[in-house]
Amino acid sequence: MVVSHIKTSDEYTKAIAGKKVVIKLGAKWCAPCRRIAPNFESLSSRFDGIDFYSVDVDDFKQALASEGATSIPFFSFYRNGMRVETLSGANENKLLVAIANLAKIT
Predict the structure, then answer these.
(1) Has this prediction a pTM greater than 0.90?
(2) Is the pLDDT confidence value at 1 over 80?
């Protein structure tokens, strides 16, 4: 898999409607966001059946409000359009666990 980039409200709406989805909110100027980005990209190729998306909050500011994020990086995990978990911060171990948990949901 590859990480797709969301830039519009329509793309965002279509993305979260997927079966299993991880969305990362971040920004180019955010050091923790830059640090976790390669790990996020790597994880996208390890988990089949999960779609990975990235949002630059400077390009699509509404995503912060839509996700209820107060800090970045911020991750949301969706199954069939319903958010099942969120994660704030650049903790690689917690991100891996959250993605693994999403993968287990049937």
Answers:
(1) yes
(2) no
Both tokens of 104, joined, read 């287990």
Q: Which of 15, 21, 23, 33 is the catalytic position? A: 33
- Based on the residue annotation, tell me whether 103 is a catalytic residue of this protein: no
Axis crossing angle, helix 31-46 with helix 92-104, rounded to the nearest 10: 30
Contact predicate 24/53, CB 8 Å: yes
Domains of the chain: 4-104 (3.40.30.10)
* Residue 5 annotated in active site: no
Q: Please tell me which residue in 30, 43, 57, 102 is annotated as part of the active site.
A: 30
Identify the residue whose tokens are 């909110």.
25
pLDDT tens profile 64-90:
888 999 999 999 999 999 999 999 999
Residue by residue, DSSP assigns 19-55 as SEEEEEEE-TT-HHHHHHHHHHHHHHHH-TT-EEEEE
- The whole-angstrom separation of Cα 15 and Cα 9 is 10
